[in-house]
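Lab meeting prep.
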Amino acid sequence: MLRFLTPRRALVLDLSGSTTRESATGWSTATDVDFVQLRLGHRWYRPIHDRIVQHVTVGASFARSVVEHTVTTVEGLEGKTAQQANSGGAYADLGAAWLVTPHLSLGAAWTADVSYKRASTDASGEGVQLLDQRVRSWNANAGSVSLRLNLYF
């Protein structure tokens, strides 16, 4: 979501998420995956041609993911794994958009980010703790390219 402060400057709010539920028979397995990401930023626009604008965005990002996996054998033995991760950092993107109409644009952007991540993994089998792992890491993404279709209200 964009909130224009001036014709060439906007605040950016991007909220994305996903959830996945999987199960299988035989050895009974179930996997639940939940992910949510929030990005807040500031975007600047610059016209480079008739109805074509360049944009630069910088901001902060926050994410959380939870993965739970359960396996039950034919004999009824059960094992569980739970992973949780939280991260926060900064991102920047550089892109351009063709303003097809005043309410529609098509474009592309290159995005890079750096983040600090705290993750934990716990595993147990038949009620016995098998693994208790904690990880802290810095992560850098040199870039990804996205194609964008934007609607303006």
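Slide two material, second protein:
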Amino acid sequence: MSAAFLATPETANPWKPLSLVIAVIFGDLLVITGMALGLGLGIGLNHNNQNLTQVVTTTTTISTTSSTTTTTSSSSTVSITSTTSTTSTTSTTTTSITATQVVLCVNTFGSSTTFATGPQSVSITSGDFNRDAQSDLAIADITDNNVGVFLGNGDGTFRSQVNYRVGQEPNFVTTGDFNSDGILDLVTANSAIGTVSILLGNGNGTFQTQIIESSGTNSFGLTSGDFNGDNMQDLAVADSGDNAVSILLGNNNGTFQIGVPYNTSVLPNFIISSDFNNDSKIDLAVTNGDSNNVGILLGNGNGAFQNQITYQTGTSPVAVVASDFNNDGKVDLAIANNVTGSVSILIGNGDGSFQSQTIYLTQNNPYEIQAGDLNNDGNVDLVVVNSASNSISVLIGNGNGTFQTQRIHKTGSNPVSLVLGYFNNDRKLDLAVVNGDDNTTSIFLNTCP
């Protein structure tokens, strides 16, 4: 560790605190900061309990002063004591700094608890289905052709499931308000018969009998959004058998218009909606599993979309999530690559285009990915389920578009889907993971302070 100080006396006002510039090196981190003693300090640390004393001598005539300042931030606590003694021509200032690092939380989750679900659960979503301000869960069971609803107790536990019949082989479930009544509804993509099932919510945690709408062949993933600016929720469905995305415009009563297909690459399997070019119109991103790319379909704002533009990913991309990873106000992408065991980060340019991928390793066969601030540092982090490793990988974001090496937590057997939510009312993001072979769901409560 090394440091340099520059103190400048103020002769115009003998009672004004000294101005101070500090350059502090801790290990490989250099931070330079300027201040007036007694007014504040910004400092960077990467070691614990650093102590520093420095004597600076300047020639002047000023009065004797003494000051102590303590500054606390989310990452460090710094105390400064400055004592100035004066002769007629020389002022000697002795400054002591004690810096104690408080490391930001990195082990975001503790041990998990599990509860039973239906046979071969494959997809999970979260929302407040009974309007009690607690997070609930909905899980699609591909064998029973059901969606199981689990109402939350607000303490990280959930009530027994209530099942609702949907179409054959529901591969994906998500939420939306499809009749504009302010109550959350559910929708599934049913791969065996090329349909979607809409379950309108009653607002008390129960749901009405399904409404079935046709989509395309082997409907796999779906997303919702207002694609034509009529304040009604529409659907975009990834039809892996057609190599297309179907756009179903909503009628605002839980029903939808006939789907309009848009071509993708080979085997579209996961789709999300966001605004990638900052024009206030919803765009789409779809992973194309057999083409090893992600396709971007920019929205025209009238329900129509432009031809896809593709960006290279790892091998067999199976899921994508959008967020701002470098805090520049532009939407970025993270893609889970199943075969290569990795995550691809594509930084957005804000005009609908993306930079080339940066790859981060996960464990074997990542299957789904979510983004959120897991350690409360204001930066977006990532969490991935690794189906062949029976684990999740947590990648802590640095806030500049890069991520730290994965931290691993064990799950049940064959984890295939996950969702983030506030499950125990502490306003810290928790995690629910569906274990496909165990017929269980694992709940990971956030342990960060």
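Talking points for slide two:
DSSP finds no helices and 35 strands in the chain.
Confidence is low (pLDDT under 50) at residues 1-84, 86-103.
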